[in-house]
Design brief:
With 208 residues, the protein is of the alpha/beta class. It has seven helices and six strands; from the N terminus they run E-E-H-H-H-E-H-E-H-E-H-E-H. It is elongated.
Length: 208
């Protein structure tokens, strides 16, 4: 089964139709799967470089500050003690990897769910080609104004047009990715998903 969708050009003119695979763009959207895949992506992005010094790492002498008895003061064994100012931190954070495993089947299903969600909401646009004659931001802004996409993600084929990538770099809330970079988080964080014909063909071949 296929879903017939209109194709437009960057000049906002009709450029024919395209058939989308229903097994990829028409699956029942499951929010729990989208949630798991987004959590997996964001966990992998965390640097995990937070660090505090424990008592063995704090600079200071290892000598006992004063004798145990006879001074009328509380006993102390080290200036590095966590209860002293400038001492080590007890159970503080250490560098670690926040990533966790998620099997390929679920990751693939998550991407199908994200594409289907945009299709179901009517926020999926298929573009004939995503190419500009020059890397001028003004030219792209004028074309986007006519298309009315707002916050958008443009996914092209294996190679993104260099002029388009340079022009889009200065526009807030507009992302451009090659098809191999298509992911659930970036699709969901933008209002409109724009796929070129080339992107549709490669995504369908990749997800079948």
């Amino acid at each position: 089964m296929t879903i017939k969708t209109k194709v437009v050009s960057l000049e906002n003119k009709a450029a024919g139709d395209i058939e989308l695979d229903e097994a990829i763009f028409g699956v029942e959207v499951r929010r729990d799967i989208l949630h798991r895949v987004v959590n997996w992506q964001l966990a992998r992005r965390q640097a995990g470089t937070h660090k505090t010094k424990q008592r063995s790492e704090v600079t200071g002498t290892g000598a006992k500050p004063w004798r145990q008895k006879g001074l009328g003061r509380a006993r102390a064994g080290s200036v590095k003690s966590p209860i002293w100012r400038g001492g080590g931190v007890t159970f503080g954070p250490t560098p670690r990897d926040h990533g966790h495993k998620l099997n390929k089947k679920l990751r693939k299903l998550g991407l199908c769910n994200a594409l289907s969600a945009k299709q179901a909401e009517g926020k999926l646009v298929v573009l004939d080609t995503a190419k500009l004659s020059s890397p001028k931001t003004k030219e792209l802004v004028d074309r986007l104004a006519g298309l009315g996409w707002g916050r958008a993600l443009i996914i092209d084929g294996p190679q993104v047009d260099e002029n388009l990538a340079r022009a889009a770099a200065n526009i807030p809330n507009l992302d451009v990715l090659p098809q191999q970079g298509a992911n659930v988080y970036d699709i969901l964080r933008r209002d409109t998903l724009v796929l070129t014909r080339d992107a549709v063909e490669h995504l369908q071949a990749r997800l079948r």
